[in-house]
Amino acid sequence: MNKHLIGAAIAAALSLSLAAQDTVFVKGGKVVTVSGPVIENGVVAIANGRITKVGPADQVEVPWDAQVIDATGKVVMPTWVLAHSQGSLRSANENMQNVPYVSVADAIDPSSTFFEDCLRNGVGTIHILPGNATLLGGIGMIVRPAGRTVEDMAVRTRTGLKLSLQAQGGARLQQVRRMRRALEEIREYLADFDRRKAEFDKEKAAGAIPADKQWTEEYDRLKKPGIDLVQKKLKGWMYVPSSAEVDEALRLAEELELAIVVGQDVEKAASKLARFKAPVVLDENLEYWTRDEETEAERKVCTAKVLADAGVGFALSLGAGGPTSYPWWQLATCVRNGVDRKVAIESLTTVPAQMLGIGDDVGSISEGKFGNLQILSGDPLAATTWVETVLLEGKVAYERSKDQRLQYLLKAPEPAPAKPANTGNGGD
Amino acid sequence: MKAHTIACVLALAAAVAAQDEIHAYKAARIWPAGGSPVEQGVLVVVGGKVAAIGGADTAIPEGAKVHDLGSAVITPGLVDASWQRTGSPEDRNEQSSEVTPHMRAIDAWDPLDPQVVRARKGGVTTLHHTPGNRAVIGGLGVVVKTTPASAPTTLLKDDVSLRITMGAEPSMGNRAIRGGSVDSIYYRRPTTRMGVVWEVRRAFSKAQDYQQRTIAEGSPADPAMEVLVRALQGKVTVITTARAEQDIRTALRLADEFGYKTAIDEGVESHVMAEELAAAGATVMVGAPSADRVSGAGGSDGAEPRWSTLSRLATAGVPFVVTTGGNAAALPLAQEAMFAVRFGLTPELALDAVTLRPARLLGVDDRVGSLAPGKDADFVIWSTDPFDPTAVATAVHVNGTRIQD
After folding, report:
1. Do residue B305 and residue B267 come from a single domain?
2. Shortest CB distance from A120 goes to which of B114, B294, B343?
3. Which end of chain B is more exposed for a tag (fewer CB within 10 A), N or C?
């Protein structure tokens, strides 16, 4: 329950600092709501951080003195949601492997350019978790890419525990054994704790312990996240590096509440993942080549397409740099490989929002949700489209016209000052 | 291997069959390169060569097999002017000397390399395969087609270019001799930028002497010197890898000093000296524009990339070329050109930068690089405009023959 209290406290503090008293109207754009129909020339009204009205221009009244953001000729969409990221973490993995008690809250760097890039790319909600080179890796949290402190940025805290089946300098099976062992140790600890408490109660009842003496021992703080995991009070976010580990992950999913984050090469396990019945988070590299050992013929595989065909829902990840760090590129990669455009867009909006349990707040443009909007210069899947404006809970968090770093990269440099003529000595 | 051999034989059989075949391709749009696209275009191919290209009213010869491609788009086969993906870096970098102008990339050309197949599937039909950048003067490049395996049409033009490299890469790992036993080839020059440049000067000075001496005395040929003399005579395209501004200046200075012309490869900082490059008539090759980031990430040699590089070069009139370059993370060439469009280039220019311009640079534009009567019928059929990120190459034709991949 603690986490809800903390979350509520932070949310309350934020609504004071972030929420605008006045209503903001974003009007004139093509509104891609994701959850409902596309509205040409639509209006989105946001008050106190939440969307209050969405509709065609002729149905939503805009007061003459209202704060208006003109999106005429542009596309208005919900900001993207990342279900799994290590963005901004100074070092994403603790050296020790079994560290359920560490938290990304202590490693998120609000001044990191990662958050700048998020806004530039229209990302408005990020679930940050420890890295994959771990066993029980620590606690994650959901942040918005705006704010000077981690507290400012928090959307939800204590969102889950990172687990990883990625071999750590040993055999694959060894990692599975370690995972089993770590979970077993938690259960043994719990059993021992319960046994000792039962003994205490028994001795107290028998009068061997004074009646006024209370049982004061609490769970070991270092073990608490692991205990919450096995008691299904905390979700595990399990990294499953390849097809080979999927069976084990599905077995663990029977005893834990799990979200599955897959590595690049899961083609062969698509049908198994379909049995999982919940969407999985995909690796940022959506395309890769496989080689048939017999014929030597190569084939390009797209994870998103393979999973979509197998009926597995998915959320997309973004890379740390290069093309895969751009949402438009990731979406276009899905579509280029035959994934339905709607499914692609949902994989960066509604699907991750639901996986994170914040489907009521983010992921689509509909009444009651956060006023998290991005205004795009054109189609979200076109190479020539740029994010013009980002609103987070109704507040303008990014404007392309003020993005100095972007302008620096795109601007034509001044001609270099004239240099003295050739000073080379002409050989020796 | 078997599969490849069979593919080869089939390709050969098809090539023979294509000799007298007439095909007409109708597409929603044809980008011929070197000009504006043709809407509702028709491409006529006779005997593996382009016979005609034009709008819907283009005359289709009798007996032609007509392919109505619907909403598909046709471009010329793409030309990658800086291909460094075949084989391992060890295969492309001769380390026995810092100056190896007579090393020939064709000897390290493996048409069976999976990377070649990947390039072809992505619409690349011509590659400029060159020695790497670990030597100061690395050797001679070769222009090949991406036809399957060892089809006779693979080689387009041999020994077209000479690779010179500026900056830190040729001295990377080299160590100065400071006593003790010399137990590695890396105890050698050059160890600095200055040393790198000096190696070029020494080589070309010797070549100048050699040029005069051979004329006078008719002494036995020195293969390395022969290549350098050809470079001095302008008979081979000199390509100098120079990323940082200072290295680009040095490359131009050396060319000026010895009277040869050079193109600049991986010209990351060419944007700061676009006018000078235009005045020198130097072609600038820019590798993998998709790889640059807004935040952080400088290039090698400390060069600072800008997204505006290509439009800056375009404004100044520098003939630039887009390549995949030495970047292992480069996207397929068409998508690299798409990023150039994102960063401000017109689609026409971006297409030219991966077709006609590289063909011109390498002296093979009489055969490839654009769709014009008389040229090789190397073309790609795309699902939609190639600069749409959802586009896929649905068919690749070389010499009029569709390559089955």
Report:
1. yes
2. B294
3. N
B219 DSSP 8-state letter: P
In this structure, what DSSP letter does residue B187 have?
Answer: B
Percent above pLDDT 90 for chain A? 80
Domain range enclosing B92: 78-361
Three-state DSSP class for residue A53: strand
B253 touching chain A per CB within 8 A: yes
Q: Same domain, yes or no, for B200 and B298?
A: yes
Rounded Cα–Cα distance for residues A428 and B205 (Å)? 9
Q: pLDDT 10s per residue in chain B (405 long)?
A: 444 444 444 444 445 455 678 999 999 999 999 999 999 999 999 999 999 999 999 999 999 999 999 999 999 999 999 998 887 878 888 888 899 999 999 988 888 888 998 999 999 999 999 999 989 999 999 999 998 865 566 889 999 999 999 998 888 877 776 666 666 766 667 888 899 999 999 999 999 999 888 666 667 789 999 999 999 999 999 999 999 999 999 999 999 999 999 999 999 999 999 999 999 999 999 988 888 776 554 557 788 888 889 999 999 999 999 999 878 788 999 999 999 999 999 999 999 999 999 999 999 999 999 999 999 999 999 999 999 999 999 999 999 999 987
A335:B3 CB<8 A: no
The token pair that represents A130 in the structure block = 């420890």
Query: What residues of chain B lie within 8 A of the CB of A410, using their CB?
Result: 306-308, 343-344
Question: A13-40 burial, b if ≥16 CB within 10 A, otherwise e?
Answer: ebeeebbbeebbbbbbbbbbbbeeeebe
Residue B228 CB contacts under 8 Å (≥ 6 apart), including other chains: B101, B137, B162, B203, B204, B206, B207, B210
* Domain encompassing residue A326: 80-167+229-362
Q: Are B128 and B159 contained in the same domain?
A: yes
- State residue B177's pLDDT score: 67
Residue A236's closest CA among A163, A183, A289, A186? A163
Residue A418 Cα, gap to closest chain B Cα (Å): 10
By the CB < 8 Å criterion, does B343 face chain A? yes
Read off the DSSP letter of residue A98: B
CB B382 within 8 A of CB B73: yes
Q: Quick one: tokens of B245? A: 């501004």
Residue A10 and residue A96 in one domain: no
CB contact, 8 Å: B236 with chain A? Answer: no
CATH number at residue B17: 2.30.40.10
ipTM for the complex shown: 0.89
User: Which residues have CB under 8 Å from B168's CB, separation 6+?
Assistant: B193, B300, B301
Asked if residue A370 belongs to a domain, the reply is: yes
Tokens coding A151: 């507290």
The pLDDT > 70 percentage for chain A reads 91
Closest residue, chain A, to B202 (C-alpha):
A427
Question: Does a cis peptide bond (omega within 30 degrees of 0) precede residue B190?
Answer: yes
Strand order in the sheet with A280-281: A136-139, A161-164, A236-242, A258-265, A280-281, A314-315
Question: What is the number of domains present in chain A?
Answer: 2
Q: Do A336 and B390 touch (CB under 8 A)?
A: yes
Count up the domains in chain B and report the number.
2
* Contact list, A424 vs chain B (CB under 8 Å): 253-254, 257
Distance of CA B176 to the CA centre of its chain: 35
Q: Which helix (H) or strand (E) holds B45?
A: strand B38-46
Host H or E run for residue A44:
strand A38-47
**Is B257's Cβ below 8 Å from some Cβ in A?**
yes
Which residue of chain B is at minimal alpha-carbon distance from A287?
Answer: B331
Tell me the whole-structure pTM to 2 decimals: 0.90
| Count of all residues that appear for chain B in the document | 405
- Which residues does chain B have within 8 Å of residue A381's beta carbon, measured at their own beta carbons? 389-390
Structural domain ending residue among the three candidates A331, A362, A393: A362
